[in-house]
Amino acid sequence: MDTCELAFAGAAEQARRLAAGAITAPDLLELYLDRIARLDPLLHAYRVVVAESARREAAAAQSRIDAGERLPLLGVPIAIKDNVDVAGETTTYGSSAHGPAPERDAEVVQRLRQAGAVVIGKTTVPEMLLWPFTETITFGATRNPWNVDFAPGGSSGGSGAAVAAGLAPIALGSDGMGSIRIPATWCGLFGLKPQRDRVPMAPHDDAWNGLSVNGPITRTVEDAGLFLEAVTGESGFVDAAKNEPRRLRIALSDKLPPLLMARLGRVQRTALDEAGRLLRDLGHDVVVRDPDYPTSVMFDQALPRYFRGCYDDVQTLAHPERLEARTRSFARVGKMISDRRMTAIRAAESVTAERIQAIFDDVDVVVTPGTARGPSRIGGYQRRGMLSTLLSVASRVPYQALINVTGQPAAVVPWGFDGNGVPTSVQLIGRPSDEATLLSLAGQIEKVRPWAHRRPPVS
Q1: pLDDT tens figures, 354-392
Q2: For residue 427, is it within any domain?
Q3: InterPro entries from the xrefs (predicted)?
Q4: What's 116's domain CATH number?
Q5: Is 81 a catalytic residue?
Q6: N or C: which end of the chain has fewer CB within 10 A?
Q7: How many domains does the chain have?
Q8: Which of 156, 159, 179, 212 is catalytic?
Q9: Active-site residue, from 81, 122, 156, 425
């Protein structure tokens, strides 16, 4: 395997090769550091690369491998999204408003290190994680390796760009309104939003009033299963990714959440139609059926928690006066949502979730388009205010947020490409706590429609 193929091999395959002695952890790390030095000045996927500490970690990992130790991610590099604490490195949230560097790793980073992973750097995000594009006044624009005129998505945009371009084999993202699934879609990767509370969020528990979760952006389905096993201590996810599912009853739905102004694009419609035909060919029982979305669910549940989550996060910043004007406007709206109202919103979540999830009384998985349209052009929102930006981005990514309200798992599977050469996807939504079925179904799709071999122009 040459160095380029190794860079795109994925975390699980690299872990096997490290354990077998076919490669060494220091050499694998240097491969990525070299690629970052060559390619990231254009893409800007990393906010910071921690080369020296990563070299120490890789050397220590190799010593453990040589001693016969076996851990799920021993010696495998991983990129960490810049809203997750890494000891000694600032957590910027994409802003100059941040305070000092934390003294401790976030719990998920602790668990990744305990599983043997080597932290290579922190990836870029939009300010306060608010948008499905990754551009800030402080840190500049992150570009999509498939077409550098376009965004990679957000808010885990740097994580998506890094894995897509072969600048990391796996990356940690977070998903509060689609922020794993959106960049995974537009970067041609597998992205998994786990069940709420599956992956630790500490010290930022209940982020965005329960909307947000941590999860992986990966090249393969197996890599996502490996991540879950590493950070949860639970078994069976890797086997699920490898084993075909039983015959499933699958609902296809392109229904938009009520009151959202969006239009499904032609290539996104084609992806859903093709997925339906493929799933029938694979022996599944495929029907056309829509979840029962409450009429005002976006305004009663998703948006208030989103706005108030931003306001709450802004209160933790050392220098909120440094925030971009658009972010300050967003936080001002969040301030108007009182503690009392938020308590009532959270209390009503179970009724909303029960109504939306009623479709799973009859089906095992719901399949939707991954997004309604492709990403924005770089700089497309520079002169827009908060409301204009929100309305525009919502029309591109309407299929994600309600799954954050219900808390159940969802994943995106790469599909085709749009007219700009940017990848598309379909979204798989599972029953509560049933990541295993999503991994099995995604793995089955991957076998007959593989994507991990694809290379973007910037790679």
Answers
A1: 999 999 999 999 999 999 999 999 999 998 999 999 999
A2: yes
A3: Amidase, Amidase_dom, AS_sf
A4: 3.90.1300.10
A5: yes
A6: N
A7: 1
A8: 179
A9: 81
